[in-house]
């Protein structure tokens, strides 16, 4: 009877507007939601609205407590499932309280160095850092962000001592990197590429698991000297746990179809990310993998949320 009621409900879904909750206005999740919402509105036949809430755990808390009916969704980054490792408690369990729908986009970072750094490859940078422990600095933004964790993972896997200089904004961090106040940084592609093209910074590699068309001339960090290394921002869509499986399947199909259109792919590409539109199980697997590897990194490095 329960299975039958879920199927019947899904056949009338959606019958009212659908809300996508995202952290922060103007962030990566917000931009992604606003790019796909108009196309989803057309394909679902109901208005899809984007609801920006404060960053941190608030968006996840809202969605975890919403009715599991497919009308309140969450679009967020990997900080959603990594927050539990950086603070004493979270108001939700990232695995238990949510039903994965799909990986929306991935956002790799670049390994950039100041032109004065005498290293033109990942392997050479590692050798330099080992020869000069504690002398190199890296610029990063928010604690626990991909730009921060990419550098900490690099340090851990390479066995090097590079000192963090934290900044509140990417622009200020890049300004100091260009000025030589810091020697390296792992910025998102859209922020870093213009400075590489202008010659103000050197790009050594991209942090994606395989070569990316976002930076087609760059090798991956793994292939250029640090085997096994990979780190990129992952943005996923979720519903509250208990949402009927047919509704999850419908949302997965619709979002994947939107992300597969040439126009949407190109618009995301221009913001420095790559569209995915994966099966729901792939998002669940990506979460588990990151929680295992990056959770350990966060604990071992003593990283705590700001």
Can you give a write-up of this model?
With 306 residues, the chain is of the alpha/beta class. The chain has two domains: 2-107 and 233-301, 3-Layer(aba) Sandwich (D-Maltodextrin-Binding Protein, domain 2); 110-206, D-Maltodextrin-Binding Protein, domain 2. It has helices spanning 2-11, 28-44, 58-64, 79-86, 122-131, 146-158, 170-179, 189-197, 245-259, 262-269, 280-301; strands at residues 18-23, 48-53, 72-76, 98-108, 110-113, 137-140, 163-166, 184-185, 202-206, 232-240, 274-275. The strands form two sheets. The chain has a six-stranded mixed sheet, sandwiched between helices. Helix 6 (146-158) links the parallel strand 6 and strand 7 (163-166). The longest helix has 22 residues, at 280-301. The chain is globular and about 65 Å long. The model has no long low-confidence stretch (mean pLDDT 94).
Reconstruct the topology from this structure.
Elements: H1 2-11, E1 18-23, H2 28-44, E2 48-53, H3 58-64, E3 72-76, H4 79-86, E4 98-108, E5 110-113, H5 122-131, E6 137-140, H6 146-158, E7 163-166, H7 170-179, E8 184-185, H8 189-197, E9 202-206, E10 232-240, H9 245-259, H10 262-269, E11 274-275, H11 280-301
Parallel strand pairs: 1-2, 1-3, 6-7, 6-8
Antiparallel strand pairs: 3-10, 4-10, 4-11, 5-8, 5-9
Q: What is this entry, summarized?
A:
The protein is α/β, with parallel strands linked by helices. The chain contains eleven helices and eleven strands.
